[in-house]
Known about the structure:
The protein is α+β, with helices and mostly antiparallel strands. The protein has helices spanning 10-20, 35-45, 67-81, 99-118, 129-142, 175-185, 201-209, 217-241, 261-276, 284-294, 361-367, 373-380, 399-402, 410-419; strands at 25-30, 52-60, 85-89, 122-124, 157-160, 164-167, 242-245, 249-252, 300-304, 307-312, 315-320, 328-330, 335-338, 342-346, 352-356, 384-386, 392-396, 404-406. It folds into 3 domains: 10-215, HUPs (Rossmann fold, 3-Layer(aba) Sandwich), CATH 3.40.50; 222-322 and 415-429, no CATH class; 328-396, no CATH class. The chain is built from 14 helices and 18 strands. The strands form 4 sheets. It has a 7-stranded mixed β-sheet with strand order 3-2-1-4-6-5-18, with helices on both faces. It has a 5-stranded antiparallel β-sheet with strand order 7-8-11-10-9, sandwiched between helices. A 3-stranded antiparallel β-sheet has the order 12-15-16, with no helix packed on it. The model has no long low-confidence stretch (mean pLDDT 90).
Amino acid sequence: MTASPQPLSPQDAIRRFLAELERPAHLLVAISGGSDSTGLLVALSRSAADGVSLHAATIDHGLREESAREAQEVAALCEKLGIPHVTRRWEGEKLKSGISAAAREARYRLLTELAEEIGASAILTGHTLDDQAETVAMRGARSADEADPGLAGMAEAVLIERKFWLLRPFLRTCRADIRAFLQEKGFGWIDDPSNLDPRYERVRMRQRLAGEETVDLPSLDAAAERRARLSHQAASLLADHAVAHHGVLVHLAPDFFAADVAVRRHALGYLAAALGGRIYVPGRESMDRVMAVLDGSGAGRITAGRVIFDRRREGLYLSRENRGLQPLHLIAGERALWDGRYRIANRGDGEIVVGPTAPDRKDASILFPEVPPPVAMRAMAVMPCISAADQAVIQPVLAPFDRFLPQFDYTLAARLAYLLRCDDFPPMRVKVSARKR
């Protein structure tokens, strides 16, 4: 979406969003009843556009006694606005620790399920510029590095489960302006008491930032531009120097090491996450050790994030280490993830077992020609072996991006998907400014 140097009013934010939205569009708007999501739905309903239809959803987390009644109030508002509305409840036992993260996961899961049911083209949430400032401040408190990619904050577009783009039209709009808009139009909202509970990190940060008069949008934009540029450069570096073999072994040519160290580090971190079946890249200290070994003189080998980095005269080889590869038993019709790297579906009538492949020197040399024999053997040993393979459907998974893909990293994710033989990612539903490609 096009960047603005100043915060946008709710009306201007929606006009910009609708002008850049790909049509036809069936939008699923997540609404809790709070001012941000209510303002989003009201603003959208008052800016009707050809080829755009709205559907609203409330996720009742069942964490407060009032939540069911509040969902009914939201349903009444949607009826008044003439917008179809559905309430979905988060069922099951709630964890006592990590409840915010668990609730967020449940919310996105329920929203994507509903989006699939109704044939939505995108999911919209009411995240605001205030939320963005809090997010960046929380991440900044954990990192002293001004170039940390996390300081780019939340992306205006995020792909969830490779299926639906989650869009945030109000990410450059202040909460105070949204509330003023609602009051002007005669609409109220629900205040969630948990937004005042200092047990939550975000609430503490919100209280700390309360005295600040403005949000530094140019700084946020600069951080977003740095992150997008870093990911784009990492993707280009991999396009020029990386060759993948059977989705389990990546070879980087010697010229790879002539590139900028930050770009190399970014590329290697995400390569490791993908090959290791991990959602996150190796931590800062782990990557510091990796870079120290790889940038040293001569050959060297180190393991981080379940991945072996093996530097040789002919370049660098990366592959999953062959430890901790547990067998997976699937009954008929079952589908599950093996080692974080492959999604396996049993389409047969009997049980199948997925495990690592027993390495064989001759077979390894055939599978990985022109690769040093020890490297070929390691790579073969982490390939999936499936009993009754004709009954199985196997799909490579791109662990760091299959669940959530921020628009900043779209180009890098596409390059990794190409390298590791994963499916393509669907295009974004809105035009994206150059700073965030």
